[in-house]
UniProtKB/TrEMBL annotation:
Top-level division of the source organism's lineage: Eukaryota
Species whose genome carries this gene: Trypanosoma cruzi Dm28c
Protein name, per record: Uncharacterized protein
Taxonomic path: Eukaryota, Discoba, Euglenozoa, Kinetoplastea, Metakinetoplastina
Amino acid sequence: MKAALGRQSRQVNLKDTDSQRILSSNPSASDVTEMILSERRLWAEAAVAFWRLASRQQIHLLSHVSTGALRELHRFCEGLLDHIRITFLSLAPTATPLQVLDCVSSLGTDHILFLLDTFCSPKGCISMEGGEETRGRELHTHVCRVLAEQDHLYWMTRVVRAFCDESWRVCSEKDEMSRASVSAIHGMLRCLLHCCATSAVCAHALIYTEPRPLVAQLLYGLRLRISSNTLIRPVVRDEPTRLGVALSSAPSLPTPTMRLPATKSALAEYLTSGRTNAFDEISREALNVAVAAVKRVAAHETPEVVIGLCHIVDVSSRSIVPSPKDEKQPSISTQIAMYENVLMALEALFQLLQVKEDEPWSQELVFRQEIVLQQILNHDLARAVERLLRHCPTILDADSTLFQSIGTLCTPPFTSSRRRRRPSTVSRVENSTQCFRETAIR
């Protein structure tokens, strides 16, 4: 590992110059491919060596590689991120979703995403610095700064959108999706979550990107369900695993049929098991990243997240209402798709309202909660719940998740009697919550 670290660190000195020269001189496709393949082999070797250290819980040994371990790790990380950046730059803007997924899958197969995940984690950085918290956090801060400055969040969110589009294609054509690509998306989202939950720089870059915030791509899966009016649950193809590649052990689920399970218990099991499908899990993880970014920089006013989630709940609930022309009830597949959309969007909204037990009360905290609650009332989400009650009674009778979510809102952490509250700071929030509760009951 010491040799690999030294080699990669020396490469970094020339990497920026070489990369700019190659990319700016209009190289042929073969030149770019040759460069990427050569870089890929070198980084795969380093990543495998790193993975072996991690599997033996010996990452701390990196702090003894040289007297300037922090500097060397900075340069090593810069080289890694530059390699990933060039890999995605090689993709044409018109690359198909499958090509984008193949690109990120190659990073997962080569253990590159495992290496990136360690650098994106504050704990991983501290471990690499031999347990020195100050130096570890300095390394993590440097990683997040480079991620934001080099626009790595662009390819990360591009991958999420590509996964959603490819999932829709797979379902439409009754094809299968590679489990390696699904595993790579999970790994990439872990990296993004680590950074956006802990770094204000990354969270700000995700939310305030121009011309349209990148965070909008993290809600794309739910929007695609609405526009396609389908459940989108692709069959995932099991594959032999390579050493060190963490693949999900969840079984592949067939594309849902249009027939309603015969019994209440069968429907409940069907709904529960369906949520372990790759599309549902990745959509949920993407929403978690969006929520973490908003909370990290207190960007509750951003329309791309809070208003976007409210809009998804509203439109999804309207999609299950029969057309006034023929009054034909939407298919059970459509009902389940829109029901799951509502559940995920509401859960994300409620996460934005949650408060840590050790978080002190403040006017700013209450103001952020008010923003979310006001949008819930503005979009009349209680009416959306009423539509579900009226048009999906069979689903709601079998699954209590929606009522549990509403119960979380009606008795949120910030109104819990276990904590001492200031009446003057929470009264308006409680009034908004009470209004939602009463409307939902009606």
